[in-house]
Amino acid sequence: MISLLREKLLEVIKAVVPLVAVVCLLQVTLVQAPLEWFLQLLTGSVLAMIGMVLLLAGIDFGILPMGRFIGAELPRRGSLALIIGVAFALGFATTVAEPDVIVLAGQVEAGSQKAMSRQAVVYVIAVGMAAFAAIAMARIITGWSMRHMLTLAYSLVLALSLLAPSTFVPLAYDAGSVTTGVLSSPVMLAVAIGLGSVLAGRRALSDSFGLLGFASIGPIVAILIMGMILS
């Protein structure tokens, strides 16, 4: 565990220190924010680094192995419906807890002056993500062509983008980008790799990847449909 924490600490330092260095440079040369705010930045950065180390270590230590085990066990139940249901539940649960999704939903609530609630935005994004993640997981079993699936999905996105209110289109595409974060990505990938690894005649690498890219289309579709309903 100590070696894992040390490894994650080095990764976090490499990721966060350049950002802090840029902000410090801006503080000295351009913005010159009040000292209190600058000290809050440094304190917040340290707290964020501690949290990121614990989060990443927890994912590697427990979430990824369990995800792969779940994925490997599901085919033995012999039920495609069960696999789709589990994929939907995991996609929904991880998206609801995704920090990036929560931040985006909070900004939407503030920007709309609470006309759109944070909770509603989170749940709509989560349902879209879960639905498309379930379809992508079913693809691993059925062997559907990812090219055909992406073509149909993006055709739907383009059509809805033309029909939905213009104010919802930017939000929809942002919603698609924030769903593949530190929780949903490792969980869904681990389950997909575990699932693909036990299927005869399948390749875990090529069959398991692409799931997140396809699943991220779901929130775009969901937000665009929400916009059409609310308009």
Descriptive account of the structure:
The longest helix is centred in the N-terminal third of the chain and has 39 residues, at 35-73. The chain has two domains: 1-62; 78-230, no CATH class. The protein is built from eleven helices and no strands. It is mainly α and 231 residues long. The termini are far apart. The chain is flat and about 60 Å long.
In brief:
The protein is built from 11 helices and no strands.
Gyration radius from CA atoms, angstroms: 20 Å
N-end to C-end Cα span: 52 Å
Give the beta-strand count.
Answer: 0
Which stretches are poorly predicted, pLDDT < 50 over at least 5 residues?
none
What pattern of helices and strands is seen along the backbone? HHHHHHHHHHH
Helical stretch tally: 11
Number of separate domains:
2
Average residue pLDDT: 87
Strand content: under 5%
Helix content: over 70%
How would you sum up the major sheet? none
The rough form would be described as flat
Q: What would you call the structural class?
A: mainly alpha
